């Protein structure tokens, strides 16, 4: 069992700040058994705050059994328990804690896409309740050997990396995140009222509208770590091409060298040098999967390397990421989909970003 005191600090940060638990909240914690030390501390903190915590532990291997064994009807089935959590609970915390990130590597991508499509209604409800502040949530990662292997780090290096990026090694982590919030708000203020973004880089020249959209300051509320500002592009506005620097990971599979061409807001051409079949299956999931639901700037200086986990990779300072599929209603996005797939593009070497025709960032650095 991991007894690192930073686990307690992270649990306090997640419950008191990221999720913002209140007395009387119905609160579910989702994790794998390996994350028990963090689950226990979050459970303890929830009780201290007067919430009503429930733990949903998922055994490793169940997803593989499901995708290999389920009938078509079972792939299409939506659990009423999952529906209840999304529709009725006040708060939820998902602790990423895989012990084998490649467990689904041999699964037919079409089966994964079909099961994900069945959750479209649930994802829409989740995002709508989030926008109305009826559902507070958080996502964090527990250091496992599988994640360390993916990131090409030792277990100790990964733990230090996670805790450092989450600022739990600071004397007052909540105060540290409030400083981040103030710094990022200045970026949000600069972007407010901008109408168009253009991304230019190697094999990339993509333009889309953000007119009338709201920018969100990801300051460690919900996602931990925070470290991005994001919005929802106008659904029919994206035109041009983009080549993603880093592999896009979905269900443990790396979709490498993704290239997309947009016209009228839709992906009209797509290719990948590895796992192209998965890319095509996910794009075919529904109409919204071919449109952009999110655009964001990564701003976390503590995330210094690619880990193959998008919770961290999308925060790398100097990068941008765009999500195919569902957009967050809080940004003004109306794009609906069962998919929300973030892909990271590194613009730190030869990249330029223009806002309303004026240079806004160059080589990963914002221009004053």
Layout of SSEs?
Layout (H helix, E strand, L loop, with lengths): L4 H14 L7 E6 L4 H13 L3 E6 L4 H8 L2 H4 L4 H9 L2 E6 L12 H9 L2 H12 L4 E6 L3 H7 L3 H11 L7 H19 L4 E6 L2 E6 L6 E3 L9 E4 L7 E5 L4 E3 L2 E3 L3 E5 L2 E6 L4 H8 L8 E7 L11 H4 L5 E7 L14 E7 L5 E4 L2 E5 L2 E2 L2
Parallel strand pairs: 1-2, 1-3, 3-4
Antiparallel strand pairs: 5-6, 5-17, 6-9, 7-8, 8-14, 9-12, 10-11, 12-13, 14-15, 15-16, 17-18, 18-19
Helix pairs in contact: 1-2, 5-7
Count of domain modules: 2
User: How many DSSP E strands?
Assistant: 19
Quote the beta fraction.
25-35%
Helical residue percent band: 25-40%
Shape: globular
The spatial strand order of the largest sheet comes to: 13-12-9-6-5-17-18-19
Q: What is the rounded Rg?
A: 20 Å
Work out the helix count.
12
Q: What summary fits the major beta sheet?
A: 8 strands, antiparallel
- CA(first)-CA(last) distance: 48 Å
**Uncertain segments of ≥5 residues (pLDDT<50)?**
none
Overall pLDDT score: 96
Secondary-structure-based class equals alpha+beta
Task: Please provide a written account of the structure.
With 368 residues, the chain is an alpha+beta fold. It has two domains: 5-173, Thermophilic metalloprotease (M29) (Thermophilic metalloprotease-like); 181-366, no CATH class. 32% of the residues lie in helices and 26% in strands. It contains twelve helices and 19 strands. It has helices at 5-18, 36-48, 62-69, 72-75, 80-88, 109-117, 120-131, 145-151, 155-165, 173-191, 276-283, 310-313; strands at residues 26-31, 52-57, 91-96, 136-141, 196-201, 204-209, 216-218, 228-231, 239-243, 248-250, 253-255, 259-263, 266-271, 292-298, 319-325, 340-346, 352-355, 358-362, 365-366. Strands 13-12-9-6-5-17-18-19 form an eight-stranded antiparallel sheet. Helix 1 (5-18) crosses helix 2 and helix 5 (80-88) runs parallel beside helix 7 (120-131). The model has no long low-confidence stretch (mean pLDDT 96). Keywords: Aminopeptidase, Hydrolase, Metal-binding, Metalloprotease, Protease. Its cofactor is Co(2+); Mg(2+); Zn(2+).
């Amino acid at each position: 069992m991991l007894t690192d005191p930073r686990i307690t600090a992270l649990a306090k940060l997640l419950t008191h700040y990221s999720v913002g638990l209140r007395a009387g909240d119905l609160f579910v914690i989702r994790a794998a058994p390996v994350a028990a030390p963090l689950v226990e501390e979050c459970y303890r903190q929830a009780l201290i705050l007067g919430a009503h915590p429930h733990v949903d532990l998922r055994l490793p291997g169940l997803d593989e059994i499901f995708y290999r064994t389920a009938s078509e009807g079972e792939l299409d089935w939506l659990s009423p328990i999952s529906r209840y959590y999304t529709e009725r609970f006040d708060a939820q915390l998902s602790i990423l804690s895989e012990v084998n990130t490649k467990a689904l590597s041999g699964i037919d991508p079409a089966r994964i896409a079909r099961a994900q499509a069945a959750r479209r209604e649930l994802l829409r409800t989740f995002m709508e309740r989030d926008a109305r502040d009826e559902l507070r949530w958080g996502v964090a990662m527990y250091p496992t050997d599988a994640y360390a292997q993916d990131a090409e780090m030792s277990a100790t290096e990964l733990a230090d990396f996670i805790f450092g990026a989450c600022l739990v090694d600071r004397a007052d982590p909540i105060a540290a995140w409030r400083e981040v919030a103030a710094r990022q708000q200045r970026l949000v203020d600069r972007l407010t009222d901008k109408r168009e973004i253009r991304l230019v880089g190697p094999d990339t020249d993509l333009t889309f509208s953000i007119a009338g959209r709201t920018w969100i300051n990801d300051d460690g509320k919900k996602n931990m770590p925070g470290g991005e500002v994001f919005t929802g592009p106008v659904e029919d506005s994206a035109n041009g091409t983009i080549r993603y620097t880093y592999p896009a990971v979905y269900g443990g599979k790396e979709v490498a060298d993704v290239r997309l061409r947009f016209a009228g807001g839709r992906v009209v051409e797509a290719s990948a040098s590895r796992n192209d079949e998965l890319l095509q299956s996910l794009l075919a999931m529904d109409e919204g999967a071919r449109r952009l639901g999110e655009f964001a700037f990564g701003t976390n200086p503590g995330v210094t390397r690619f880990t193959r986990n998008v919770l961290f990779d999308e925060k790398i300072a100097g990068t941008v990421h765009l999500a195919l599929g569902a957009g967050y209603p809080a940004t003004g996005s109306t794009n609906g989909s069962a998919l929300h797939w973030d892909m990271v593009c590194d613009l730190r070497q030869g990249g330029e970003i223009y806002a309303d025709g004026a240079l806004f960032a160059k080589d990963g650095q914002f221009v004053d």
